Amino acid sequence: MKKFLAILIILSMTLCGCTKSHSHTSKTSDSSMGEIIVPLKMPDINVNIPDKFKKSSTEINETVFICNDASVIINSDALPENITTSDDYADYAIKHYTDMTDSLKVISRSVVNSDSGTKITQVEFTYSVSTNNGKLTKTCIAGYFVDSDTIYMITCKSDNNTYQSFKSDFLGIIKSAGLK
Prior knowledge:
By secondary structure, the chain is α+β, with helices and mostly antiparallel strands. The protein is built from 3 helices and 11 strands.
């Protein structure tokens, strides 16, 4: 169970933009407790989340939207060095996803304009991770957009067998995103 939990935390951190060198990852040190991870805050952007998704939180993210096995996580972070566009960031993210999973297959990749005119790079993929209870397999669609030196990430995922029932919600969430 501990291995499974560790894998999920690592995947959440990697898949949602939480890395040690970026500005929005908060760690503090307490001599009696060691290092404490402070959850990432949801960025102040426009995004429409369907009512069926309920607001929740995790150790890693202050705000997560959940509906059954589906989740939507919205983060922002400083752009990594040498990354200037959402398309560059999508390449960077897929490389990290591939490094952290047992397998990853990109289904589609496109650039869409949000309802507010924001250019969003959208990547749809499946991935699997080995756990003590077997393989965990998910399908994900992630949307990335850049403003100045900040990357905004919208990560929507669910189990493979329920993904199609959430896909139109996920696409709508990404299409609704933009700066305030």
